[in-house]
């Protein structure tokens, strides 16, 4: 799953810049704190001198004196923390802060790429700026129940649209909260404009914010990649292979608007291969569709329907077209 050299170097430069920025911000915090608490300078000098003495005593084998100096340094460090706390600063204020504490902004944990590096690769391969822009506006903090009424009961769910969407959101949050400990897939279905894509964006943001690799593709995008991979119709097959590998191996694959593509035998076989392979790898998939559950059974193969019905939590959203409601409010 190699990147082109310039792409790989772009990611590495970003990590270099991030570490330099971390150092710069720490320097600014130190200047601020030491100006406000001059006693810290004296304590630092005592700790440094104590450390030098500790090294000398360690070499000379004087264990009692070494133990005493270590204890003194611990007392001084505690005093330093007390001064910081008294001045209203958190204990970690004078430590380096990392965007990714797991790899300390190096991109690697040992010899393995960190999850944040893998997500950076995914972002390059799938040009996900559109997704990242979307999730800034479509997330749980901007989600509203106001568009779901409480004045009728849906025949299928036996709930009002408002009661039903609250149930759906609860299940989605369970899916997110248990993502690392419980393998699960979701099928989110319902009429056009009821909030399916909005909720998939909510899922994407929550998991990306928690350093999971997430690929978000419309059904058209997914099958275009699968077609190029299957028939070797791309000029740069290395990129297509990379994309195919990541589709199968990312932490979460979101396929939006299944059913809008031109359905045929090829689509059926490739969709089954994709969701089946991810199931075998215990990699979660979220599918959204305007199709009803009965239409899914009619439009796709028995194997696909069986896999979805047995391995996906089915979440139906009912209600009126939210986009139309917003449009009517403007007028």
Considering the chains and any ligands shown, give keywords for the structure.
331 residues, alpha/beta, five-stranded parallel sheet, two-stranded antiparallel sheet, 60% helix, 10% strand
Structure commentary:
By secondary structure, the chain is α/β, with parallel strands linked by helices. It is built from 13 helices and seven strands. Strands 4-5-6-3-7 form a five-stranded parallel sheet, sandwiched between helices. Strands 1-2 form a two-stranded antiparallel sheet. Helix 8 packs across helix 9. The protein is elongated. 27% of the residues are buried.
Write the layout of secondary structure elements.
Layout: H1 5-36, H2 39-60, H3 63-86, E1 108-109, E2 112-113, H4 115-126, H5 129-137, H6 161-177, E3 185-190, H7 196-209, E4 214-218, H8 219-231, H9 237-249, E5 252-258, H10 265-280, E6 284-289, H11 293-299, H12 302-311, E7 312-317, H13 322-330
Helix pairs in contact: 2-3, 5-7, 6-7, 8-9, 10-12
Enumerate the spans where pLDDT stays under 50 for 5 or more consecutive residues: none
Q: What assembly state would you assign to the polypeptide chains in this entry?
A: single chain
State the end-to-end CA separation: 51 Å
Largest sheet: 5 strands, parallel
The percent of residues in helical segments reads: 55-70%
């Amino acid at each position: 799953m190699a990147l082109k050299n310039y792409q790989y170097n772009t990611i590495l430069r970003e990590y270099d810049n991030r570490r330099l920025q971390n150092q710069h911000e720490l320097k600014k915090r130190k200047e601020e704190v030491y100006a406000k608490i001059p006693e810290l300078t004296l304590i630092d000098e005592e700790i440094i001198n104590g450390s030098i003495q500790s090294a000398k005593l360690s070499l000379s084998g004087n264990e009692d004196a070494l133990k005493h100096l270590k204890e003194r340094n611990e007392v001084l460090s505690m005093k330093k923390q007390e001064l910081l706390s008294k001045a209203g600063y958190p204990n970690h204020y004078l430590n380096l802060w990392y965007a990714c504490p797991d790899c300390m902004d190096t991109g690697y944990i040992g010899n393995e790429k960190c999850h944040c590096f893998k997500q950076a690769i995914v972002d390059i391969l799938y040009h996900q700026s559109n997704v990242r822009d979307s999730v800034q506006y479509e997330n749980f903090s901007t989600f509203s129940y106001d568009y779901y009424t409480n004045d009728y009961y849906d025949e299928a769910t036996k709930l009002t649209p408002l009661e039903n969407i609250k149930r759906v959101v609860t299940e989605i949050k369970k899916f997110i909260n248990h993502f690392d400990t419980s393998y699960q897939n979701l099928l989110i279905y319902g009429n056009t404009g009821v909030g399916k894509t909005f909720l998939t964006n909510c899922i994407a943001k929550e998991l990306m914010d928690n350093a999971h690799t997430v690929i978000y593709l419309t059904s058209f995008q997914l099958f275009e990649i699968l077609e190029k991979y299957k028939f070797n119709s791309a000029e740069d097959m290395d990129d297509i292979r990379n994309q195919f590998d990541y589709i199968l191996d990312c932490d979460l694959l979101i396929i939006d608007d299944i059913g809008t593509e031109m359905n045929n035998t090829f689509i059926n076989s490739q969709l089954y291969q994709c969701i089946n392979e991810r199931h075998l790898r215990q990699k979660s998939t979220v599918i959204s569709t305007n199709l009803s559950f009965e239409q899914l059974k009619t439009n796709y193969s028995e194997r696909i329907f069986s896999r979805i019905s047995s391995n996906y939590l089915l979440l139906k959203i009912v209600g009126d077209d939210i986009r139309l409601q917003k449009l009517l409010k403007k007028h």
